[in-house]
Hints:
The chain is an alpha/beta fold.
Amino acid sequence: MPDLSSAxxxxxxxxxxxxxxxxxxxxxxxxxxxxxxxTLAPVTTPRRLILFAADRGTTxxxxxxxxxxxxxxxxxxxxxxxxxxxxxxxxxxxGSRADPLPDAPNYRSRKVRRVSRNEAKPYALTADEFRAAFxxxxxxxxxxxxxxxxxxxxxxxETNHPDLEAIVARMDRPVPAGTDLVQGLVEIPLAVEVAAIxxxxxxxxxxxxxxVLDGPTPLAAALVAKxxxxxxxxxxxxxxxxxxxxxxxxxxxxxxxxxxxxxxLQLGEGVGALLAFxxxxxxxxxxxxxxxxxxxxxxxxxxxxxxxKSARKIAVFTGSFDPPTTFHRxxxxxxxxxxxxxxxxxxxxxxxxxxxxxxAAPIHRAxxxxxxxxxxxxxxxxxxxxxxxxxxxxxxxDELYADRGEVWHIVSAxxxxxxxxxxxxxxxxxxxxxxxxxxxxxxVLHPTHAPPNPADLPPVSRLVAVDDHVxxxxxxxxxxxxxxxxxxxxxxxxAYIRRYHLFSDFPAPRETRIKLDDPRLMIVADEGxxxxxxxxNQFRQLESSDxxxxxxxxxxxxxxxxxxxxxxxxxxxxxLNAGHLGFLxxxxxxxxxxxxxxxxxxxxxxxxDTQTPDGRTARALAYVDAWVERDTGQAAWxxxxxxGRTQVPKVVGDxxxxxxxxxSSAYARAMGATPVPLSAPVLTLAGSNVFRPRFWKPVxxxxxxxxxxxxxxxxxxxxxxxxxDGQLVGPVAAMEVRVSSVAAVELAFTPQFDLSARLLxxxxxxxxxx
Length: 770
């Protein structure tokens, strides 16, 4: 990493379009970031807060276990603030009494010991224990770099703070030649978290990460890290201050001053670091994106050099992602860590030149990609190619994403071979590839020990080294032969592959079963429904910011609203009826969902394209039904086309409706349609008060049918309006309905749920007198 002198940094900040020093401490923070990262364009994302948990002393009644559970479940202040600041949060159990939880993206058990054995010295560590904890911290720093982090932070979970005065005094004492530094440190004594955070900070500084410390325990760790690795303090930023003399003395030893003074933050959990992150973002934006005075002071008629429409940089990552792998996740994080504001993951549609029968269907690929990338800050998924069943040419991305920033293309180094002679895959096989080679921007992925030949690089490119690539074809073959996709795919993707028998010689089922061994819920209760709110309180202990199921409390309307809002979470929807009929809901659920077996129905959603009378078009999704109905006192005149062919030239009536199996028991039933099983691969076409053709009857169409309803009236006297799941769309001239290739939901029911009985109840509901 290149070194920048303080003079160079000052000249850059003073040259910006503002009076020198007018941004006060924000400029000081910007200068600090530039110095730490060795660049005038620092970045502060991706970032991670790493917390180390341990019990101190031998009092059995005192345990840090409840705090561990609160943070891991997502209910703690640090969990909430991490999500609001787009920050990773990981908790490492370094020494609690609690039994380890299963490893998860935000939790790892790496116990050096369960608790101090010395009641009089609850912090005491042996030299071997110190070294073991220090290594755990170093490994977390290395993992952060591998995951693409640019900033790491740590806080404390104990209010019993270390003796800063003793640590400062030990640091000031001269160290005789040949002295074992670790043996000298453990005489203080130190808590196991101090040793772990010291390892984290020391290795993070070596790897060039920006470090944010928050609280006395990380401050003590920073002093220890500086003692062992003197360069550590040059990478540190202090989040919040403390009025005690020992705290101020320790900060002075590191040469840093806190960002947040007078905030009276006493909770711990790294909250101060999380609150400091937006200030870091602002400082980085000032240094990286502000115009200079030379540009700002151009005469009104002067033409500055062409600038991108946005200072943001985005990288487009295309591929089959069939399945998406841990390698793909690592690429997205690494690219984000190279100064890109956003990575857009864009799974491609089917290629005519590569018909691969073993690949998952588009709906399954869409679900897997969402599951793989949904928790990565700054990473979005664009399913447009899968939805359209196509592969959009890369040269169109500049125009497609122009409003989001400067577009870069993520490619493998293999695509560049022969570039010096104009024979690379990009130049010879991509449409307009030679033009894109000259004018485009490329992020080039390559193994660490095999960088591409510089002569083969396109004019604008950035190299990103990334290892451990496993071809998706190898994973598919392994699954087909009876093996597991894990560990080469994220666990959520592996579970989905198992659930639907993907990449095997079994067809993907419409109905399957899962077991909630570790229920973590997103709870959605029908607002204003007292019964739903009371039921919600019974399940609050299972609520989590990292859910594996969505519990919906209310009636079918509450379920529809939850599906519209949360379907991209790709989690099973588990309903509990607190309304009326509740066709989509369970009537009862066990109070403790742990170990509960559920029957899961994979239900399609409808893609609905509408055209207004003035020619505007729009696209939306529906879960149960889409319909058009008359908007005046005159009957509607409608034409019905199925798969591009006119099937009914003229329908005269109040309206027409297309329903999924989930909707067949709702408005479609009121139009005379027969409810069908949830797993039935059909669409229902029904009519309301149809006068012509005579003897109109609802019909069941194949699930892959494309139904177009067109208003035949051109006078305006027989206007029609559209509805999706009961929500008004407005005036329409035509509505085209098909099953979406990328949108579906999973409805979960207990095995006691009797679908046949529920269908009969929907057709013959009990009388209100009973």
